[in-house]
Specification:
The protein has 165 residues and is mainly alpha-helical. The protein has helices at 18-28, 30-56, 65-83, 85-89, 91-116, 124-130, 136-152, 156-163. Helix 2 (30-56) packs antiparallel against helix 3 (65-83) and helix 2 packs antiparallel against helix 7. 27% of the residues are buried.
Length: 165
Amino acid sequence: MTKAAGAPAATSFPATSFPATALEALRTGRFQRSLALATAGGSLVTAAEIYLEHDRAGFGNRMMWWPVLLGPVGAAAGVAGAVDERAARTVLPVVSAAVAANGVQGFWLHLRGLLEKPGGWRMARFNLETGPPLFAPLLMGMVGGLGLVAAVLRREDTALSTEGS
């Protein structure tokens, strides 16, 4: 079998396989935009879920508003990072670090809330089922982590312009 003129070089993976597609996206820099958009979407979905859960708890602590307010900010930074390379290198990592830090802070506050419930760790199973969700704030941290990873990946425009020189 001969290779047609202008055909792309063969890879070790079939052209339609997921690993080949993902590796190609990483190699060419398209993955940064995808992760930035995933950060935007994840921020909105997470903020909406947090709003519903914290509203159910009556926003008893003013700190409960932080993840709700950071959600739209993370979404705006994610979209900006997908559209503009400069925003992906400046705004996106700063906002993503704040979102990730808020996730860690929320984990600590939820852990403290579980310990303050009657029985503390002696009634761990009951308190984990009825108290604040212990691992839910880490979802916010993961969304921030997505943005941080997107910020360090190379951009498609940059990847293509540096390969030719």
